[in-house]
Amino acid sequence: MKFVITGGAGFIGSHIAKHLVEKNHDVIIIDNLSRGRLENLSEIKEQIEFKKIDILDFNSLKDVVSNSDGIFHQAALTSVPESFLQKEKYHNVNVKGTENIFKLAKEFGKKVVYASSSSVYGNTTTIPIQENFEKNPINPYGITKLDDEKLAQKYHNLGVSIIGLRYFNVYGVGQTNDYAGVITKFINQINLNESPIIFGDGLQTRDFISVEDVAKANLSSMESNTDFSFLNIGTGISTSVKTLAEIMMDLSGKTLELSYDDLPLGDVKDSLADVSLAKQLINWNYDTLLKNGLKKFFF
């Protein structure tokens, strides 16, 4: 089959592309290269078609989408700190751009699997987080993702098949500070023999999910009979930021003192996915334990 991936030169999008190529699908990458990098696609560049297009360019998108069997929509701005400084830009790209994709999916009858985010939940009082929990994002980035979900519901009511995947903390080789950024920062600090800097007391918890498992979740969603849903994509395993730093230092073989700094604005205290719905609706579960996934950074 032939699939379009928006943001396909980005961290997650490029891993989806590699997974689709492995499964012998034809892949068209759409990316404006503002954040994505062609290097992310270097190992599959002969097996894909690349088009430099912005998702706000509706007419350019039209020809590409019409000639496909489905859309993986990953293009977005994803930095929480930056979203406070550039609210209008984040709304334009993340909301208006996403609506362009949904409009075209409606026009041409295509299924969409797109990147939502665990940030739609905000600070929950109960964990693990289930999909029906109240949505109360605490930063502008999370607000754009919740706006996208409202659009998804609207377009599904108009007949579009849409699955939104609420990614928890995605990590993997090739990631940027935008995705599970604490891992990237710790790697850089450890490689420089500097103390890993922990924001707050380090007891805040996250659900770290490997990018390879996320790529599999996307294809499983596209291939499933599920017509509409929002699904948590995580492991259901809680890891504190302090424990993360200790695991990474152990893997690196280095002994460094931990350092502490103030917690940034818009930081969630605890985040943990209940992934039972994804198991049920798209027959997906994670494969990679955190320590095994982190080994790829050091070996």
Automatic annotation (TrEMBL):
Domain of life, source organism: Archaea
Species name: Candidatus Nitrosomarinus catalinensis
Residue ranges of every copy of the NAD-dependent epimerase/dehydratase domain listed in the record: 4-233
InterPro entries reported for this sequence: Epimerase_deHydtase, NAD(P)-bd_dom_sf
Protein's recorded name: UDP-galactose-4-epimerase
Pfam families linked: Epimerase
Similarity section: Belongs to the NAD(P)-dependent epimerase/dehydratase family.
